[in-house]
Automatic annotation (TrEMBL):
Malonyl-CoA decarboxylase C-terminal domain location: 180-459
Polar residues composition-biased segments: 1-10
Record's protein name: Malonyl-CoA decarboxylase
Gene Ontology annotations for the cellular component aspect, listed alphabetically: mitochondrial matrix; peroxisomal matrix
Gene Ontology MF terms: malonyl-CoA decarboxylase activity
Chain intervals for the UniProt region annotation (Disordered): 1-22
GO BP: acetyl-CoA biosynthetic process; fatty acid biosynthetic process; malonyl-CoA catabolic process
Malonyl-CoA decarboxylase N-terminal domain residues: 95-173
Organism whose genome encodes this protein: Ceratopteris richardii (Triangle waterfern)
Recorded coiled-coil stretches: none
Length: 495
């Protein structure tokens, strides 16, 4: 049986049904009244109809009016703080009276007040969301609405918007309980509409054509995803796995699959891509649940597999490194300085060790009046990154970049968590950083993001809970001795 994916797109289809600005504004006015009617009404047939109408009308709004609705929900449909204050005082008085009299006659009143407080602390917007979630298609609507809300937060990071986002996230986390998630193994026999979603939403290593897709679903490969019964035909998240004899460091070797490992000889499950399909589910830990579930399935299906690791990109390395090189370079040109003037101001730091700086200066003797940092900046920003692949510079630039990358992954933190988002994801799930791979991704994207370096995270099943505890409680990122050794500069010689 073959799969026909004619007309495959690399982008999601445009939203349909959006009205022009004037009509959208009229719909917005109508929605304000609908919101109030839904909240005031008890759960009945008429309120159900209003909820459905609200969802349909919301999808017709342009982005500006969607943001107006979200602003309305965040600012006008919260809690009654005066009521909360009165109930809190009433509860405090009851507790005080019970303590003084040492009698339990006030206990029923305490329970009633506690119940009233819980109700008062529930924002009106949450009541609306819960009613929407009870309707067919309601979960998908809330996911889409949260995606719009997160766009609004990117533009206006206000406390009211963040709180509304927290409320929506909590509702979605409850709706997406692990018991309700359905694990699916994708195959070439799946409907074309579902396979098209894999092509559209593959976020790490784009699927180039049908042959590439078929290869990723073939032997020596697995692709698993989560579905939810309320979102039929919509994979929420999916992960791609290569079955290999050992931990692989180069993503091009995995994607090309020129020397596949027979499945009965595979001892390693290499997770090389994980992609979410729903922006509205950002921050909900479906990835952790999926990895854990897939590990269990593979252990049961293939007992010979003893190693579970990833082959991961380092998307933030160059954006972290280049501004620091620029800030340390005393001969940085005024035009380049102007390009970086919008960046956050950075304190000067000794990014390169003295030995590394000498090696760079000796390897580029023709670069007069330039600092070592300026030389390195030029190497890393040269068009198409050809210089970084030059054999004459390998002996100098490779150990420097590997050391700086190890520092970035292990030591650079924000609020006690790893600065790199991929590192934070895996280490909070119990992985350790196993090794760095030089030229592990020599695609244009890989060179731009991380100078071609990739990283393997390893899930050692007997250490997962210990690693999670060390990270969440102490901020310690577990790593192999190789990573720790990279933090110290090595002796280098120009190529």
């Amino acid at each position: 049986m073959s799969c026909n994916l004619e007309g495959l797109n690399s982008q999601p289809p445009p939203q349909e049904g959006t009205l022009e600005s004037g009509s959208s504004t009229r719909i917005f006015d109508k929605l304000q009244a609908t919101i109030q009617n839904i909240i005031n009404a008890r759960a009945n047939a008429s309120s159900d109809i209003a909820v459905c109408q609200f969802s349909n009308d919301y999808y017709k709004l342009d982005q500006s009016n969607k943001h107006r609705i979200l602003t309305l929900l965040a600012t006008k449909y919260g809690v009654n703080r005066t009521n909360i204050q009165n109930l809190s005082q009433q509860y405090s008085d009851l507790c005080k009276a019970e303590k003084e009299t040492k009698e339990e006659k006030n206990t029923p009143a305490l329970y009633r007040t506690e119940h009233s407080l819980r109700s008062a602390l529930t924002p009106l917007s949450v009541q609306l969301f819960k009613q929407i979630n009870c309707q067919p298609g309601g979960l998908k609507f809330l996911v889409d609405m949260r995606a719009d809300l997160r766009m609004l937060i990117e533009d206006q990071n206000l406390p009211a918007f963040r709180y509304l986002d927290t409320c929506l996230k909590e509702i979605l986390e409850t709706a997406l309980s692990p018991a309700l998630l359905e694990l699916h193994l994708f195959t070439w026999e799946d409907p074309a509409a579902i396979l098209e979603k894999l092509v559209i939403f593959e976020a790490v290593h784009p699927i180039s054509n049908l042959y590439d897709l078929k290869r990723r679903l073939g032997s020596e490969r697995r692709c698993f995803g989560y579905f939810h019964p309320s979102l039929p035909g919509e994979p929420l998240i999916f992960i791609e796995v290569a079955l290999t004899r050992s931990i692989v460091g180069c993503i091009q070797d995995v994607l090309r699959n020129e020397s596949p490992t027979p499945e009965d000889e595979a001892t390693t499950a290499l997770f090389y891509s994980i992609s979410s399909t729903q922006p509205g589910l950002t921050g909900i830990s479906l990835g952790k649940l999926l990895i854990k579930r897939v590990v269990g399935v593979l252990q049961q299906e293939m007992p010979k597999i003893m190693t579970f690791a990833t082959l991961s990109p380092i998307p933030g390395f160059m954006s972290w490194l280049l501004p620091r090189l620029a800030s340390e370079s005393q001969s940085f040109s005024s035009s380049r300085m102007q390009q970086d003037s919008e960046r956050k101001s950075l304190f000067k730091e000794n990014l390169l060790h003295a030995q590394e700086a000498r090696s760079l200066l000796e390897s580029c003797r023709t670069a007069e009046n330039q600092t070592a940092e300026n030389i390195m900046w030029n190497i890393l920003t040269f068009p198409r990154k050809e210089l970084i692949r030059s054999e004459s510079l390998q002996g100098v630039i490779k150990p420097i970049l590997l050391r700086l990358c190890a520092r970035y992954l292990l030591l650079e933190k924000r609020r006690g968590k790893a600065l790199d988002v991929v590192t934070n994801f895996h280490v909070q799930n119990g992985a350790l950083i196993e090794r760095l791979n030089w030229m592990g991704d020599f695609s244009e994207r890989g060179l731009n993001q991380s100078a071609g370096i990739t990283v393997n995270y390893c899930y050692r099943l007997d250490k997962i809970e210990e690693n999670i505890g060390n990270y969440l409680e102490k901020g310690i990122i577990s790593s192999s001795s190789m990573l720790k050794d990279l933090l110290e500069p090595k002796s280098m010689s120009p190529g």
